[in-house]
From TrEMBL:
InterPro entries: Phage_SPP1_head-tail_adaptor (IPR008767), SSP1_head-tail_sf (IPR038666). It comes from the Bacteria. Pfam families: Phage_HCP. This is Phage head closure protein.
Length: 118
């Protein structure tokens, strides 16, 4: 699936991380305020989905989907979040390349995290 990836399309960096306490307390609820904390980053590119893949994702109830590709990294897992610029994404699935792992690529399907206030 990822055999045709051109590494020169990896034009931006994405950060992988998790939510961590900021040390501040929400005065309304008394709970700690959480914010994204980056663990590591890597070069990435954006993968275009064909129509069948778009329909499959829509059928799974995933909206605001985006697919990034990166060099294979065993540290990337579905418990992490992805940040690109100011946008934060939750990982839905990771498709690893079936070739040599040190030369392979991973496709990371994510959806945009929308914070609702109110």
């Amino acid at each position: 699936m990822t055999k045709a990836i051109n590494p020169s399309r990896m034009t931006f960096r994405i950060a992988f991380g998790h939510d961590a306490d900021t040390g501040e307390i929400n005065p309304n609820t008394g709970t700690p305020i959480q914010q994204f904390s980056a663990d590591f980053s890597c070069w990435a590119g954006q993968w275009s989905l064909n129509v069948q893949q778009q329909l499959t994702i829509a059928g799974a109830g995933i909206t605001n989907a985006v697919v990034f590709f990166i060099r294979h990294n065993p540290a990337v897992n579905e418990a992490l979040q992805v940040q690109r610029g100011s946008d934060l994404y939750k990982i839905d699935s990771i498709a690893a390349d079936d070739g040599l792992q040190n030369e392979g690529f991973d496709l990371i399907t994510c959806h945009l995290v929308v914070t609702k206030h109110g």
